[in-house]
């Protein structure tokens, strides 16, 4: 059980800075998911917490103690790697027991702990097998088991599910969540998959280009994105963004309280609205118009793609059964005023 | 009806099989023939050999010739020379493997100043065979008083750029995450080496052992220089020493018996290691 504190941590590889000062405070037992596009520095941040990468500046604390200078083994952590990193010549049992063996745990206790973890992960029948005799999902479980048996204060996961097929990924996601909840171990989980992030996280950290853009509970981040990047990254299909050229644009009619805020802002403003908050009618206060390009019926829902006069794309999410206009026809869309987000020229939200 | 194409195919395959086998058998016969002659020569008496035509079937002198070779030999008993060769070949093979695997471990897994320089220095020595540096090496060995000793036979040949290079290439294919996982598990570097890297290198070690054992066994020039005392001769150079100088008569049956004996240990090593080899290949770990 432990808290983690990441305090203005930066990382430079040679001359290039890849993490530009990240602050995260993690409570005891919390499940934190770090999500962001490829190359944004998620793994690097996680590896600095693990001690596999040095911290250029700033401080990492585990349970209130500075760990910058400690070796991974002295940080009381366990890590699950993307390719599992199982020891190929050892049996499943030995893989799980290796850390305990090094720590000098008594044989009987090792056997007991490994058996318990194996039971938890339904690996009981496979203890004598070598990793290569296991399926991807089973290997994944062994990697989890290796982390569990050590009873660490912190779990670190680096995209542990990305080598599995879609169905197994969903199943393992649920298992990881249940396991973490049962054990109550503070966890830091890296993924580029926003669905994983939304479903697993107690709080998520959305990273972009070495900066933590927003930290918060999944639904808060979703409903209240603080930057344009977050709005565009979280949610599928992503948020619609419309550049506002002048206050009275023909293709966009905004209610007075929003127009006020736009006027006060400096520089160009971007209007953001989520596809599911738009509907193809004129009932909301904020209205947009565009030409319907094509429709994607997905069964339960239908995605309607439109283009504005200015050439910007808008996606509207409709119920699957709604009657739709023809392709090429001019349509009106609207949304309630509270669903409209405004972003300034630096991409930050304007309140 | 349905069986027709099947039997046709078997027949066709059968013919091809016979042909390839015939070719192979012919090849084996050609290669084995000189060795067969050597064996035959080691089982007959001296007069039978020198009288043409050469005998093609084994004679009745097998035990006499072999026991004479093993116990008394010509300059030194063959048993003694076999032992010397075994010490040298095992020493070189094991020493080379130990040193090269450790240096490859250092070069791949540790960042230290001059790491690349050292690697390239080792690599450079690949280009210098024993024969090229034999005079200075002899000088050094002689100054250390290593003439006529096992250390003199073994140590100067023990450094191996080839084996270091091979282990380096193998270690570089081992995923970094494995070393990181071991670090998180609490393994210090040497522990990682013993528990993970070494077992994973098993098959490489076996392969290298075979090659290096034969390399050590077949050394000729170096033992010839460094040993003057017949009791320190190795078998391969010992055979040459058995040829008489001047007008003495060569004792061919004993020389041939010695040759056959000299071939046996490498054969045994290859055959016994081959099993380990194949097992290693079949349950390949990667
Ligand atoms: N050892 C290194 N030396 C130099 N640059 C590095 C090193 N490791 C990572 N980087 C750089 O740091 C940046 C962040 O890398 P990182 O691996 O953390 O990305 P990531 O967010 O985990 O991406 P992905 O989702 O693809 O795994 C990248 O631009 C990468 O090129
Ligand atoms: Mg990564």
How is the secondary structure organized here?
The complex is a heterodimer of chains A (351) and B (286).
Chain A: E1 4-13, E2 16-26, E3 31-35, H1 42-50, E4 57-62, E5 65-66, E6 77-80, H2 92-103, H3 107-120, H4 136-149, E7 154-158, H5 166-183, E8 186-191, H6 194-200, E9 203-208, E10 211-216, H7 218-223, H8 228-233, E11 240-244, E12 252-253, H9 256-264, E13 269-273, E14 286-297, E15 301-307, E16 313-319, E17 330-335, E18 341-343, E19 349-350
Helix pairs in contact in A: 2-3, 2-4, 3-4
Chain B: H1 3-41, H2 46-50, H3 62-71, H4 78-109, H5 115-125, H6 134-143, H7 150-154, H8 161-173, H9 176-184, H10 189-200, H11 202-217, H12 221-226, H13 235-242, H14 252-282
Helix pairs in contact in B: 1-14, 3-14, 4-8, 4-11, 5-8, 11-14, 13-14
Bound molecules: adenosine-5'-triphosphate and magnesium ion (MG).
Give a written overview of the molecule:
The complex is a heterodimer of chains A (351) and B (286). Chain A is an alpha+beta fold. Chain A has two domains: 223 residues, Rossmann fold, CATH 3.40.50.300; 107 residues, OB fold (Dihydrolipoamide Acetyltransferase, E2P) (Beta Barrel). Chain A is built from nine helices and 19 strands. A six-stranded mixed sheet of chain A has the order 6-7-8-3-9-10, with helices on both faces. In chain A, strands 12, 14, 15, 16 and 17 form a five-stranded antiparallel sheet that branches. A four-stranded antiparallel sheet of chain A has the order 2-1-4-5, covered by helices on one side. The two termini of chain A are 38 Å apart. Chain B contains 14 helices and no strands. Chain B starts with a helix and ends with a helix. Chain B is globular and about 75 Å long. Chain B is mainly alpha-helical. The interface between A and B is medium-sized, with 25 and 20 residues. The structure holds adenosine-5'-triphosphate and magnesium ion (MG). Adenosine-5'-triphosphate (ATP) binds next to helix 1 of chain A. Magnesium ion binds next to helix 1 of chain A.
């Amino acid at each position: 059980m432990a808290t983690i504190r990441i305090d203005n941590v930066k990382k430079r590889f040679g001359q290039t800075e890849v993490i530009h000062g990240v602050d995260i405070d993690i409570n005891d037992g919390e499940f934190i998911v770090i999500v962001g596009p490829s190359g944004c520095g998620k793994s690097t941040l996680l590896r600095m917490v693990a001690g596999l990468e040095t911290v250029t500046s700033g401080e990492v604390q585990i349970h209130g103690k500075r760990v910058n200078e400690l070796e991974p083994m002295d940080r009381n952590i366990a890590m699950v790697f993307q390719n599992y990193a199982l020891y190929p010549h050892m049996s499943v049992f030995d893989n799980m027991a290796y850390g305990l063996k090094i720590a000098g745990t008594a044989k009987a206790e090792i056997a007991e702990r490994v058996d318990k973890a194996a039971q938890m992960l339904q690996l009981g029948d496979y203890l004598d097998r070598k990793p290569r005799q296991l399926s991807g999902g089973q290997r994944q479980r062994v990697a989890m088991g290796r982390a569990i048996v050590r009873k660490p204060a912190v779990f670190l996961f680096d995209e542990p599910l990305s080598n599995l097929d879609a169905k197994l990924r969903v199943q393992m996601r649920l298992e990881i969540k249940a396991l973490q909840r049962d054990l109550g171990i503070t966890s830091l989980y890296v993924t580029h998959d926003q669905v994983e992030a939304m479903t697993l996280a107690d709080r998520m950290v959305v990273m972009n280009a070495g900066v933590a853009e927003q930290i918060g509970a999944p639904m808060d981040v979703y409903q209240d994105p603080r930057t344009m990047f977050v709005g565009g990254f979280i949610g599928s299909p992503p948020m619609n963004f419309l550049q506002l050229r002048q206050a009275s644009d023909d293709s966009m009619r905004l209610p007075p309280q929003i127009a006020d805020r736009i006027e006060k802002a400096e520089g160009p403003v971007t209007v953001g609205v989520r596809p599911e908050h738009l509907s193809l009618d004129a009932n909301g206060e904020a209205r947009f118009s565009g030409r319907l390009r094509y429709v994607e019926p997905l069964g339960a829902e239908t995605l309607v793609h439109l283009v504005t006069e200015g050439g910007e794309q808008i996606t509207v999410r409709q119920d699957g059964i709604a009657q739709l206009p023809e392709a090429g026809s001019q349509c009106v869309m609207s949304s309630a005023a509270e669903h409209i987000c405004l972003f300034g020229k630096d991409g930050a939200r304007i309140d | 009806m349905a069986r027709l194409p099947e039997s046709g195919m078997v027949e066709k395959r059968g013919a091809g099989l016979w042909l390839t086998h015939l070719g192979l058998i012919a090849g084996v016969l050609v290669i084995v023939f000189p060795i067969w002659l050597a064996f035959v020569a080691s089982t007959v008496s001296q007069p039978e050999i020198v009288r043409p035509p050469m005998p093609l079937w084994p004679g009745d002198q097998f035990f006499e010739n072999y026991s004479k070779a093993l116990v008394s030999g010509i300059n030194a008993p063959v048993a003694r020379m076999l032992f010397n060769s075994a010490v040298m070949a095992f020493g070189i093979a094991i020493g080379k493997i130990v040193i090269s695997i450790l240096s490859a471990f250092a070069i791949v897994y540790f960042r230290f100043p001059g790491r690349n320089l050292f690697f390239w220095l080792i690599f450079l020595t690949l280009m210098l065979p024993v024969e090229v540096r034999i005079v200075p090496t002899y000088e050094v060995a002689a100054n250390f008083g290593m003439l006529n000793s096992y250390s003199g036979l073994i140590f100067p040949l023990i450094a191996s750029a080839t084996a270091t290079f091979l282990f380096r290439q193998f270690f570089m294919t081992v995923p970094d995450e494995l070393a990181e996982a071991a670090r998180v598990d609490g393994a210090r570097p040497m522990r990682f080496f013993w528990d993970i890297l070494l077992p994973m290198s098993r098959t490489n070690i076996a392969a290298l052992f075979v090659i290096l054992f034969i390399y050590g066994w077949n050394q000729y020039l170096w033992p010839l220089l460094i040993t003057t005392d017949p009791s320190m001769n190795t078998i391969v150079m010992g055979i040459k020493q058995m040829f008489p100088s001047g007008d003495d008569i060569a004792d061919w049956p004993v020389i041939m018996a010695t040759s056959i004996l000299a071939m046996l240990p490498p054969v045994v090593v290859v055959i016994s290691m081959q099993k380990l080899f194949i097992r290693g290949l079949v349950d390949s770990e990667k």
